[in-house]
Structure formats: C-alpha cells, structure tokens
C-alpha cells in the first residue's frame, strides 16, 4: 500500500468517525428538543458525508492531494 492510499483510508476513517459523532449529537438534540443543536448535528452529518465521498473518489482515482 502506498502513502496516497493510506491517506485516503485515514480520510475515510475520519469521515466515518465524524459521522458517528454527528449522529450521537443528533440523538441528544432530539431528546432535548434543542433546535440549534439539531441544526448543528444535521450540518455535521452533511460534512461527514461530503468528506467520505471525497475520500472514496480520491481512492478510486488514486489521486490524493
């Protein structure tokens, strides 16, 4: 495995970790009925999904910056 693929897998792992944390925040916000925390959690989930998509695309192209 080369360095670029390792970076891609680390990016993907980071995005998955971010998604897990965001879902946890989403559950907590729904329990507390906190609309601001809910908006933050939804935005965090969107960021995690985008990061994962970018990492997967980079792994498929084998072209990481």
SSE blueprint:
Layout: H1 3-32, H2 35-61
Helix pairs in contact: 1-2
Question: Mind explaining what this structure looks like?
Answer:
This protein is mainly α and 65 residues long. Helices cover 88% and strands 0% of the residues. The chain has helices at 3-32, 35-61. Helix 1 runs antiparallel to helix 2. The radius of gyration is 14 Å and the shape is elongated.
Ends: how far apart?
A: 17 Å
Global shape: elongated
Average pLDDT across residues?
Answer: 88
Model regions low in confidence, pLDDT < 50 over at least 5 residues = none
Number of helices: 2
Largest sheet: none
Structural category: mainly alpha
Question: Which percent band covers the strand fraction?
Answer: under 5%
| Extended strand count | 0
Write the H/E string, N to C.
Answer: HH
Q: Whole-number radius of gyration?
A: 14 Å
Tell me roughly what share of residues is in helical segments. over 70%
Note the main attributes of this structure.
65 residues, mainly alpha
Could you give a quick summary of the protein structure above?
This protein is mainly alpha-helical. It contains two helices and no strands.
């Amino acid at each position: 495995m080369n360095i670029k693929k390792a970076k891609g897998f680390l990016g993907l792992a980071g995005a998955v970790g971010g998604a897990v944390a965001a879902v946890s925040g989403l559950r907590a916000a729904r329990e507390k009925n906190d609309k601001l925390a809910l908006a933050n959690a939804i935005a965090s989930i969107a960021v995690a999904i985008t990061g994962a998509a970018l990492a997967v695309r980079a792994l498929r192209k084998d072209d990481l910056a």
